[in-house]
Design goal:
This protein has about 140 residues and is an alpha+beta fold. It contains four helices and six strands, in the order H-H-H-E-E-E-E-E-E-H. Strands 1, 2, 3, 4, 5 and 6 form a six-stranded antiparallel beta sheet that branches. A hairpin with a 6-residue loop joins strand 3 and strand 4. Helix 3 crosses helix 4.
């Protein structure tokens, strides 16, 4: 009985070792894995970076889909500054896969004071990003 058990174990080990030694191993498709290395829609991500390129970036997280800008002062209005946070929520190119939040401050007597942001400003940023993302997708499909 003991000898039969030992033979069965050695036989199964030999079979498992020979199964690993085959020459025809599947090769990984490295090109495909390099194309989608971020956790969100790449068109929305790229469009957001392009749209906010004039603002200094404070934080970017491509896996989480978050882009946070630092305070930006427009040279034409030096008493006002803006900070924008854009979150890409999905891997699909959809309008509801994008969330934009903006903060605005006004300089009063040397101190920055919070001020309301017009809803149209946030909506306009979303529209610009979505339009740019669609353009990037069209260009990728055409090539």
């Amino acid at each position: 009985m003991n000898r039969l058990l030992r033979t069965a174990i050695l036989g199964s080990l030999a079979l498992s070792i020979t199964a690993c030694g085959g020459k025809s191993r599947p090769e990984a498709d490295l090109a495909a894995s390099k194309v989608t290395t971020i956790g969100v829609n790449s068109y929305l991500w790229r469009a957001t970076l392009d749209t906010l390129s004039f603002m200094p970036l404070l934080q970017t997280d491509s896996n989480g889909g978050v882009i946070v800008t630092d305070w930006y002062v427009n040279p034409n209005t030096p008493t006002e500054r803006m900070k924008v946070t854009v979150t890409v929520l999905d891997q699909d190119l959809r309008a509801d896969a994008l969330r934009v939040a903006a903060l605005r401050e006004i300089n009063r007597s040397g101190a920055w004071v919070a001020a309301p942001v017009q809803a149209a400003t946030v909506q306009k940023l979303e529209d610009i990003i979505l339009t740019r993302a669609r353009d990037l997708r069209r260009a990728a499909i055409a090539n």
